[in-house]
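Reopening this one. Same input as before:
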Amino acid sequence: MRKVLVFNNVSLDGYIADAKGDMSWAHKQDPEWLAFTSENAKGQAEMLFGRLTYEMMAAWWPTAQALQGMPDVARAMNEAPKVVFSRTLREATWQNTRLVKSDPAAEVRRMKAETGPGLLVMGSGTIVSQLTDAGLVDEYQLVLNGIALGRGKKMFDLREKTPLALVKTRVFKNGNVVLWYERAR
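Same output, byte for byte:
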């Protein structure tokens, strides 16, 4: 069975984007962090996005600037199979992307039963919430950033409490702390 992993940058006050949708506060360029993200990008995964995150990612990763600044990550993002969940998007033009207009939880449940690489959600708070509510997320990798945004887009908007168990941590010199969680059993 395929596993579902969520990887998100989070502010100290729990937001994944500021009130304008900006995430530049999460982009650090120091060597230690770049080595971690490059290594992380080597993992094989099929990426899952909501429409807004998909449009942001599709506008950035295929660019020459992304390929020059973060070549390993850009290459992995562009080559990976991707699914975008949207009822309003007409077509998905980013390389290797499939558009799904049906219920994300039902589709991910079907995908988990197949063989293949893991399923990775980045950003996409609405999709994270839907998959969490459905009990489909196996692991959360949360990058806690040393910033409070005051308001913005939350990662979770859940129907009920979801206990998580901390299984690993890593502290970076730039102030980021990566927290690995699994659903508490």
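So the earlier flakiness isn't reproducible anymore. For the record, The longest strand covers residues 4-11.
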